[in-house]
Amino acid sequence: QVQLVESGGGLVQAGGSLRLSCTASVRTFSDYTMAWFRQVPGREREFVASITPYGRSTDFADSVKGRSGISRDYANSVFLDIDSLRPEDAAVYYCQAQSIAGEFVYWGQGTQVSVSS
Predict the structure, then answer these.
(1) Contact 4, 106 (CB under 8 A)
(2) Region 94-100 average pLDDT
(3) How far is the C-alpha of 65 from the C-alpha of 34, rounded, in Å?
(4) HEC sequence for 2-31
(5) Average of pLDDT values for 41-50?
(6) How confident is residue 38, by pLDDT bands cut at 50, 70 and 90?
(7) Is 42 left (phi over 0), alpha (psi -120 to 50) or beta?
(8) How far is residue 28 from each of residues 61, 70, 76, 82, measured CA to CA in Å?
(9) pLDDT value at residue 113
(10) How far is CA 71 from CA 44, 56, 67, 80, in A?
(11) Is the Cβ–Cβ distance between 68 and 60 less than 8 Å?
(12) 22: phi > 0 → left, psi -120 to 50 → alpha, else beta; which?
């Protein structure tokens, strides 16, 4: 079982930046592709960004492309940076770990991001 704990959410002013962190309790962090999703009430959870093991490849949703970054370290953490925040970035952000073969998917409990205009 993999446990994921997100942190870094809160209230941010529009135009500002934020960094979300997610730490995984897992023996071999490099066995997992890590991703961030977000969800607002009444809507489907949507993909934001992902990073493969060792950070060789990243992917971003069009909504954050060009103003965001995703990275991971060797201490079982993954980070999401978003600049130029917009009101539509407000959501609960979830960390996801997916095993390389795709057979296991784990989610964190989510962290709320609010954006003031």
Answers:
(1) yes
(2) 96
(3) 17
(4) CEEEEECCEEEECCCCEEEEEEEECCCHHH
(5) 97
(6) very high
(7) left
(8) 27, 19, 8, 27
(9) 98
(10) 25, 10, 14, 7
(11) yes
(12) beta
Token match 């980070």: residue? Answer: 79
Which token pair is 50?
């992902």
DSSP 27-82: S-GGGEEEEEEEE-TTS--EEEEEE-GGG--EEE-TTTTTSEEEEE-TTSEEEEEE
Q: CA neighbours within 13 Å on the CB side: how many for 32?
A: 28
Separation of alpha carbons 75 and 68, rounded Å: 21
Question: Residue 1 has what pLDDT?
Answer: 82
Spatial separation of the C-alpha atoms in residues 22 and 12, rounded to whole Å: 19
Residue 43, φ and ψ in degrees, nearest 5: -125, 160
Mean pLDDT of all residues in 20-48: 96
For 57-64, what is the mean pLDDT? 98
